[in-house]
UniProtKB/TrEMBL annotation:
Matching PANTHER family: OXIDOREDUCTASE, SHORT-CHAIN DEHYDROGENASE/REDUCTASE FAMILY (AFU_ORTHOLOGUE AFUA_5G02870) (PTHR43639), SHORT-CHAIN DEHYDROGENASE_REDUCTASE FAMILY PROTEIN (PTHR43639:SF1)
Sorted UniProt keywords: Oxidoreductase
Entry-linked Gene3D superfamilies: NAD(P)-binding Rossmann-like Domain
Signal sequence region: none
Keyword Oxidoreductase appears in the UniProt entry: yes
UniProt xrefs under SMART domains: PKS_KR (SM00822)
GO terms, molecular function: oxidoreductase activity
Superkingdom to which the source organism belongs: Bacteria
Pfam families listed in its UniProt record: adh_short_C2 (PF13561)
Entry's family note: Belongs to the short-chain dehydrogenases/reductases (SDR) family.
Domain Ketoreductase residue range list: 4-208
Protein name: SDR family oxidoreductase
Record-linked InterPro entries: KR_dom, NAD(P)-bd_dom_sf, Sc_DH/Rdtase_CS, SDR_fam
């Protein structure tokens, strides 16, 4: 029987890359989605392959339906099955107040962070659900502690997008609970990844460290281990959960 297969969106760097790396080390076959940075995705595939795992990279913007359909078709061709989806792809933006933001920012934020996760989950359900002839599976959505903090004065639009992810997680978990699909989320806090620099705050981790009860930032691998647990049979009775990986914040 072929090894289980997972798709990690935004898997070329940060938390997504750690999930792909740890997943492959745990015996998963991994499809690594990326939007633009083909070098990072290819390097990760090479790293996994050299370590004895199986992986491939697939380009696509999760906020574009045609790209999502193409991505899942590539997984079908390569693996012939899908057992896990990690909705990790997401964007943040420059620190700003709501009254300084324009509609283009709102639309980009929601298209990628929310609509992208909805589209990918829809395609995963079509393949995993026993209602559609599938064998079941697990979906893990990446939220953020911003969903419960609101991120005032920084990016309330990002916080709102992650709040939507959490509502979606709870609803979908209940919708497909009898179809052998579990749906959960992890809620990272301050994690040392490139996303802060992409939002114009390369020093944000150091600045926020003191607000964390554990007095340190998290590592991408620490979040990835939580994701892998939720994907595993060890979490067989866990669905609709939002697992904090935030150092107590």
């Amino acid at each position: 029987m072929a090894a289980k297969a997972m798709l990690v969106t935004g898997g070329g760097r940060g938390i997504g890359a750690s999930v792909a790396r740890l997943g492959a080390a745990s015996g998963w076959r991994v499809a690594i989605n990326y939007a633009a940075n083909d070098k990072a995705a290819t390097a990760l595939v090479d790293e996994i392959t050299e370590a004895g795992g199986e992986a491939f990279a697939v380009k696509g913007d999760v906020g574009v339906e045609a790209d999502v359909l193409s991505m899942f078709e590539a997984v079908d061709r390569r693996f012939g099955r899908l057992d896990g989806l990690v909705n990790n792809a997401g964007v943040v933006d420059r620190k700003a107040r709501l009254d300084e933001m324009d509609i283009a920012r709102f639309e980009r934020m929601m298209r990628i962070n929310v609509i992208g996760s909805l589209l990918c989950a829809r395609e995963a359900v079509k393949r995993m659900s026993t209602r559609h002839g599938g064998q079941g599976g697990a979906i893990v959505n990446i939220s953020s502690v911003a969903a419960v903090l609101g991120s005032p004065g920084e990016y309330v639009d990002y916080a709102a997008s992650k709040g939507a992810i959490e509502s979606f997680t709870l609803g979908l978990a209940r919708e497909v609970a009898t179809e052998n699909i579990r749906v959960n989320a992890v809620r990272p806090g301050i994690i040392d990844t490139e996303i802060h620099a992409s939002g114009g705050q390369p020093d944000r981790v150091a600045a926020m460290r003191g607000l964390v009860p554990m007095q340190r930032e998290g590592k991408a691998d620490e979040v990835a281990r939580a994701v892998l647990w939720l994907l595993s049979e060890e979490a067989s009775y866990t669905t609709g959960a939002i697992l904090n990986t935030s150092g107590g914040r």
